[in-house]
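Q: Here's a chain of 162 amino acids. Please give me its 3D structure as tokens.
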Amino acid sequence: MKIHDIMTQDVRTCGLESSLTEVARQMRAACCGAIPVVDADGSIAGVVTDRDISMAIVNSTRKPINIAAREVMSPHVHFCAPDDDVRAALHTMKMARVRRLPVIGPGGRLAGIVSMDDVILRALAPDAPDSTEIVDSLREIVLYHEKNDLLSEKPAASSPGG
């Protein structure tokens, strides 16, 4: 099974200066938990997750409308390609301890996004990773997040009058 078989192709993105309010609204509208951040050239610069937004709000006195995506995004983006095998993407998710991977197509452009949910929803397909591979990957991701205090990873800077 290939990534292009299961990925979401219609992906919403935001810019580096998009406010967390804008990003959260996009997440709500798209029913998703991650928005790729693109630069002026349309290249992926990072990813903002619902958790990034939550932690930024908790760790700041600033209002979400005054916090830019670039301040809280994960700039080290792990990704896959449309023709990659799903097992390879699952391995990347496990090693990077992430639930979602942007899919980068020809020319380095965003072609879609694939999530752990996409893998699980197609787990019964004959060419899908087996349940042990999926559970092992998900367990690694969950245990990592339980063991690590993410509250201090990407706090948004506080400023008077926020």
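Q: Can you summarize the key feature?
A: The chain is about 40% helix and 15% strand.
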